[in-house]
Structures are given as structure tokens and as C-alpha cells.
Write the C-alpha cells for this entry.
Amino acid sequence: MSTTARNLRSACIALAVLALALACESEEATCTALPTFTLSAPAIAPTTAGSAIQVEIRRSGTACAYAGGGADIKLETLGGGSVSPATLTVPEAGAKLVWTLGPAPIRQTLSVVGTPDAQLALTAEVAAPVVPQTFGDVHAFLLAEGITSTTEDLAIAADGTIALGVDGAVIEVRQSSDGKVTISKRKLSGDPLPRAHGLAYDRQGTLWTADPAGGALHAIAKDGTVKTHLTAVEGTPLDGPNDVAVDPGDRVLLSDPCRGELYYYDPKAGKVTDIEPFDLLTEGGPNGFAFQGDTLYVVTENTTLLCPKAKKKPPVTANLAALFRLSAKDGVFGPRTLVEGGLGVFGDGMAFDALGNLYVIVDTIANVAIDESRVMVLRAGESKLVPFVAFKKSAILANVAFGRGPLGDTTMFAALLAIPPFTAPEQRGLVRFEVGVKGLALLP
């Protein structure tokens, strides 16, 4: 065979091998393309937490690279709940699975990992309220310490320690990795602390507290030293400071519902940098709040029963609890808008989860007594609150916060109020309930 013939033969073989490789590569590219999946379920009416939804999943498109002609996929849930099985093979005829809804009445999503177009978004409205569980025997501890006052607000440190406010003291509640709960009284020094009401940590670990009995804003250092920062604004004494929060710049916000004002306080400058007034007769007095970035959500309350010195007193039963939204940045408040009004008589603490859902305490009254105390949820992107947790006359919720550290960040904790004769003295302390979604610390 001539040299030219041998070269021609080699070239032909090389071209054949290349063509075969390209054909295989093309075949592999075609066969490994993930099919399109469609999830379907029966129409879902308002239901209870833990409801099992029967879901059917179908596929369309080539699946030749999958064993047995099927497609191995993984599913994930968002907003709580779970799916079983989480990984499965979908044949041409489709497959079925069970989606168990989470406890919170928020938007819950089931989707195929890697294919965001294949998803089923449902809203689970909890018809039967979640039943909270008592966390630690705070009442027994307070009795042993000779403390007869009610518990009020709570703040949770990064290590999971819960700070709980009472008259003249701060109580600390801890849970170890094995689930054991211990309760102690924090050792304090420095300025008097008549009543630790609203509580919030800053980034240095300082615990800020509103003190309605002393009419003051205090800071408790890590070593337990109490320092009074504010007792009057523009020459007028504080009347009933109630709640505190810390913004991204470690400035402190303080509400005084009896004066109908919200204050922006700069600890470094030692002064109030801005004031946000509310009309006590039509809007109620500002109480609890929570940050979402530079946006502050504030809930108000009817102050007639709470503020005997207030000059403006609406009817006792007026449903003035309302949720507002305003910007709060660099020590300055921006324009305020109403999210929803007429929620009840008293609004109190609130907290956000990582999906942007807001949990707000609202109380209603009947015959000049608390009728129902509940946690309501403002679902992300919506403008109406829906019920979540409720106590019917048996207890009063004061404030809420998501757990941290060993407490678990999908569990919400709530401080209780004991206000005889409306609730029994032993109805103070802490309760917890599962939300199913990771929460955000109150510190933004």
C-alpha cells in the first residue's frame, strides 16, 4: 500500500472515530437533560397544621439516561412542613407523595430541586390554634425568690440565654444541650431598676430595658451594672416607657404609649434624635416593634386602662390596636403608613422569621377583661393578619422572640403577663411553640 493510501485510510478511521464520539456526546447531552415536572394536588381549604396533602407528580420530556426509564429527583419544602418521600424515581406514569404542612399559617412551597418552574405554592390557614407548651417553671422560681410581680418582656442572647423582665430584677433562663432548663436571677448593681419591662440586646451584649415604674430607659452592661440613660424628652418626663429595640447602627428605639410617642435615642450622643407622635384617640399609643432592614413595624394599643395620667382617653373597648410601617434609619423616622387597623384593643410584641413573615401579639377584651390573647401573622407580601396561636381568657401574651443556640431557631418563645383578677398569679413565665421556619433575632 502506498504512503498516500495509508494516510487516506488513517484519516478515514480518525474521522469515523470523531463522528462516533460526537454522536455519543450528542446522545448523552440529549438523554441527561432533566425532564419537566408538574406537581398537582386537590383544592385545599383552610386546614390544620400537620395536614397531609396528597400530591401527584408527573414528568414530560426525555428521560433515557435514567435507570428503568424513570427520573431520580429530589424535592424540598419552604415555609415549614415536610415531604415523603423526599427523593424518588418518577416513571412515565407519574408518582405520588405526601406533603405534610407545617404549623404556621404562612405560604408554604413544595418544589423539585433544580427546577423552580415545577412547584406548588399553597397557603395553609391554621383553623385550630397551636397549643403552646410551658417552658421552665418560672412561677415557682419567682415565688422562691419572693418576687410577686408579673413577667413581661423577653430578649434572647446569641448563646440562647433568655432574659425575662420582672419588678426590680432580670431573670435568666437557660436550656442545656440535654434539654435541662435552669433559672437564675441576674446580679445587678448601679442605678435602681424598679421594673424591667421592654428588653433588647445590642451588638456589644448590653441589655437595654424600658422601665415604666421608674419612667426611664436603662442599659445593663455585661457585668450587671445598670446605667440610666433617659428619663425625660424635651423637658417632659417619660410617662410609661414600654418597649425597646436596637437598629443596625446600635441606636435605641423606645416606645412610650402613654405619651403616644416613639423615640430614636443615640447612646453615643446621649440624646433623642427624632420623635414619632401618634394620636391616642384614633391610632392608639405605640407599643411593640421590629425591624426589617431599615423598615420599622410598630403596633399600637388602647391606653385608657394602662395610662391613668393620659389626657386623651378613648373608650375602653375601642379597637385601636393597629399595625404601622415606617422607615427608621440613621436616627431619623420616615413617613408612616397603616398596614392594618382595628386588630383589637392591645397590640404588643412582635418578631420576624427568615422568610419575611411578621408575628404580632394582639389582645381583644370583653366586659373590661382580656377575652383572647393571640399571635397573628402578617404573611410576606400581604396586608391582612391571620391568626396563629391563641389563649382564650386563660393567659395573656406579652412578647415573642425566636430561639437561638440550644433553644432552636424555629421555635418561638413568648413571655406571659399575670394581671389579677384578669389572670391567675401563676399565669406568668414562658411558653414556647414550634413555627417550623427559621426565625430572625430581634437585633437586625
